[in-house]
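User: Second chain of the day. Same drill as before.
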Amino acid sequence: MSDQVYVGNAHADGALDSGWLLGHFKPPGDPRHSEDVEIKWGVHAPGDERARWATGEVRTALLVLISGRFRVELPGRSVLLSEPGDYVVWGRGVDHSWRAEEASTVLTVRWPSVPGYRVG
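Assistant: Same format as last time:
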């Protein structure tokens, strides 16, 4: 049963794979492989921002602020996450972008895990 258990550290493991901890992109047989959900531990320096808006989104997403100040841009709306635990959820078809206003750590959960949509 030990091959079905993985123990790690989100900060350390995330640093190895652009923050991604779980999703379709982990090797089959790895307990972190999932076609249902993706989880990312995002660590961002002040001023980090998405290179371009994500468009044509086919997943639902939840982004939770762990620390810092983090802004999520949505069509016609700007959401500032400023207190640990603040979060935003957006559905399929909602374009988005983001910017770290100060050093920030965020946890992102997306579903389903769709091949070809992982940003490195």
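The two ends are 31 Å apart (CA to CA).

User: Great, on to the next one.
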